[in-house]
Specification:
globular, Aspartate Aminotransferase, domain 2, seven-stranded mixed sheet, binds pyridoxal-5'-phosphate, four-stranded mixed sheet
Length: about 450
């Protein structure tokens, strides 16, 4: 579906032309979006996947391939924003779900499944002594923050500018009107000295500090070890609960970035792929904090949720983590990701363009700028229009990456040939668009 391109004088013009080409070859996706507009605001129920002029309507996925409503197929380099690590329609996960369906799926009580998945997770994530299941990463963070506030008796939570922790608490913009009404302190990611000073200043009011050990959606920006260790040391000193949001990053080693860095938080939030690609989340950590939920206690904290232990998610997660994304598979996938990122950066270096890929292992992000990227403020200095163009140009070459943010997350069925296709597509982009770089 490659369209003839004109030589564009500037990025804005090139982007308009790319969008027009996209609209021309995707009439069914456009019609699907139009049909959704009367019933949902803007035809959308998930902000992060919308893009202009209209989103692709997907109809099918298999392995590492996606098919859209206009008959195009793409290599999937997003894997459902990290949740689809197993690839589409994995036969092992499918069987686990089908086997459970034979036994009924609304049993309305305990089963053996929840403890089985809990013990797999506890074996993998060093901070987790006990855990509870929820249905999303948002909920996992919400309960971690809330239990920290109860445990410490303090009101405030500290996070970092540009960090996303789900719909209830995002530090992306000071003006997010949907944040829960909770006192917040906002630091700058990777600013060791400034953050240490902020923690000391607000210690008496801080219940928790929450952060991702690598900002995922924010641009695959790793936290420095120094930054993580400082937060661990300061939170311990002041009796503040340290929460690692590993909703995305838990896939980056056999036990998340906490295992890889050795910085062990008090509480951890999980989500995404841990339920085999079905709606899932878990929050857990220190036994003395989590045991406050023990329903045998007269003063137990309440935490219900109809689908917390839904058998589909649990069965899929047990097979997913127990048999498919094993510790060995995690190590191998992340090593492949590191190799891919190096190849992509070599393409940028050879071409001498202001473009780079950041990340760790199986998660990477493209940035249209040179130099170190330590926080979202650095990332924002990149050419965002060129990054949008990158998305449309890669689509033309049958490669699907995250529309707005350039995020890529690898899934297990991606082959070396798929990697070669991505590298070639990036090579084509830097050559064809060379004159548009800053
Ligand atoms: C770091 C992080 N935390 C929390 C969430 C929220 O997870 P969910 O979308 O499952 O609610 C996300 C989602 O992308 C995330 O990236």
């Amino acid at each position: 579906m490659t369209a003839a391109r004109s030589i564009n004088a500037d990025v804005a013009e090139a982007l308009e032309e790319a969008k027009a080409n996209y609209a021309r070859v995707n009439p069914t996706s456009r019609a699907t979006h139009q049909k959704a507009i009367p019933t949902m605001p803007g035809g959308n129920t998930r902000t992060g996947i919308f893009f202009d002029p209209f989103p692709i309507a997907w109809v099918r996925g298999e392995g590492a391939r996606l098919w859209d409503a206009d008959g195009h197929d793409y290599i999937d380099f997003i894997s459902e924003a990290t949740a689809g690590i197993y690839g589409h329609s994995h036969p092992g996960i499918r069987k686990a779900i089908e086997d459970r369906m034979d036994l009924g799926w609304n049993l309305g009580g305990h089963t053996a499944l929840e403890a089985e998945l809990a013990s797999i997770l506890i074996d993998r994530f060093p901070s987790i002594e006990r855990l509870r299941f929820v249905n999303s990463g948002t909920e996992a963070n919400m309960f971690n923050v809330q239990v920290a506030r109860v445990a410490t008796g303090r009101p405030a939570v500290m996070g970092f500018n540009g960090c996303y922790h789900g719909g209830f608490l995002t530090f992306t913009a000071a003006t997010n009107p949907l944040n829960v009404p909770c006192e917040t302190v906002v630091g700058t990611y990777n600013d060791v000295e400034g953050t240490a000073a902020l923690i000391d200043k607000h210690a008496d009011r801080l219940a928790a500090i929450i952060f991702e050990p690598m900002m995922g959606g924010g641009g695959c920006i790793p936290a420095s070890l120094e930054f993580m260790q400082m937060i661990r040391e300061r939170t311990r000193k002041h009796g503040i609960v340290m929460i690692l949001d590993e909703v995305m990053t838990s896939r980056l080693s056999s036990g998340g970035l906490q295992l890889k860095t050795g910085v062990i938080p008090d509480l951890t939030s999980l989500g995404k792929y841990i339920g085999g690609g079905l709606p899932a989340g878990a929050f857990g950590g220190r036994a003395d904090i989590l045991d406050r939920f023990d329903p045998r206690k007269s003063d137990a904290l309440p935490h219900s949720g109809t689908y917390n232990n839904n058998v589909m998610t649990l069965a899929a997660g047990i097979v997913g983590l127990g048999k498919i994304y094993t510790k060995e598979a995690a190590t191998a996938l992340n090593a492949r990701g590191d190799g891919l990122r190096k190849r992509l950066n070599a393409v940028c270096d050879r071409a001498g363009v202001a473009m780079q890929f950041t990340g760790i292992g199986s998660m990477l992000s493209v940035h249209m700028r040179r130099g170190e990227i330590r926080n979202p403020q650095d990332a924002a200095k990149g050419n965002t229009k060129l990054r949008e163009l990158f998305f449309f140009d890669l689509l033309e070459q049958g490669v699907h990456v995250m529309p707005k943010r350039g995020l890529m997350a690898l899934c297990l069925p991606l082959t070396d040939a798929d990697f070669d296709t991505l590298v070639a597509a990036v090579e084509e982009f830097v050559q064809a668009r060379r004159s548009l770089f800053d």
